[in-house]
Structures are given as structure tokens and as C-alpha cells.
Write a structure and sequence with these properties.
The protein has helices at about 5, 25-30, 40-125. By secondary structure, it is mostly helical.
């Protein structure tokens, strides 16, 4: 048995509850409230038909398409990982370096040019007093 087969848990196939919203058991889809009950034989037969039809259709669809869809998604996430690792992360690092330099440059310009003007305006306006009469 190779490593890929060891990693697959055949008993618990959604350990992170990714598809909790897709619960499709008979009881999650159909329910008869008090006062509106079909005969017991109809309810039991309906439940068996629902479960059997769902299982048969799901098995057929996954048998025909599941492997190819899994292959597609594996390739898709490989491409996303490649793009993030080899393109996006280095690009963000380059931007961080350049923008860090720009931040220092503009910070220095503002400190040298704008700070004295703001300080002078602050001193000028601090002498204003308002009297209510």
C-alpha cells in the first residue's frame, strides 16, 4: 500500500465538514408534520425509494465522472499553488520592498516640508480665543 492510499480515510470522508450544507438524507429533505401523515407503507416505501435512487444515481455519477473531476480539481489546485508560490508571493515581497522605500521617501518629504508649516499654523491658531457674551 503506497502513501496516497494510507492518507485516504474510507470511513470518514468529510472530516472537516466541508459539505455539511448538502445533507440529503430522507429525514433532511422530507418530513410530514403532525396531522398530515401518509399511510405507513407509503412513507416506508418512499424512504426506501429515495435512499435507493439517491445511492444508485450518486454511485453512477461518481463512477462516470468522479475520477475525472478529481483529476481536474487536483490540477486546478496545483496551478493555484504554483501561482501563489512562484508568482504572487515573490511579487508581494518586491512590492513591499519598493513601497517601503517610497514610504520612507514621502515620510521624509512630509517631515521636511509640511511639518514646519503645520507647526507654524498650529502655533498661530492656538492664540485665538473665543468669548461668549
Amino acid at each position: 500500500m503506497d502513501d496516497l492510499e494510507k492518507d485516504v480515510d474510507l470511513s470518514r470522508r468529510d472530516p472537516n465538514d466541508l459539505n455539511k450544507h448538502v445533507q440529503t438524507a430522507f429525514e433532511d429533505v422530507l418530513g410530514e408534520p403532525d396531522g398530515s401523515h401518509s399511510p405507513d407503507c407509503v412513507w416506508r416505501t418512499s424512504a426506501m425509494c429515495f435512499k435507493g435512487g439517491k445511492a444508485c444515481c450518486y454511485t453512477l455519477l461518481t463512477g462516470l465522472c468522479g475520477i475525472f473531476i478529481a483529476l481536474y480539481w487536483g490540477c486546478e489546485f496545483a496551478c493555484i499553488s504554483f501561482e501563489q508560490i512562484w508568482c504572487t508571493t515573490p511579487w508581494l515581497r518586491v512590492c513591499g520592498i519598493y513601497f517601503g522605500c517610497l514610504q520612507k521617501f514621502f515620510g521624509t518629504c512630509i517631515s521636511c516640508c509640511l511639518a514646519p508649516i503645520c507647526e507654524t499654523a498650529g502655533l498661530f491658531f492656538s492664540q485665538i480665543t473665543v468669548k461668549n457674551s
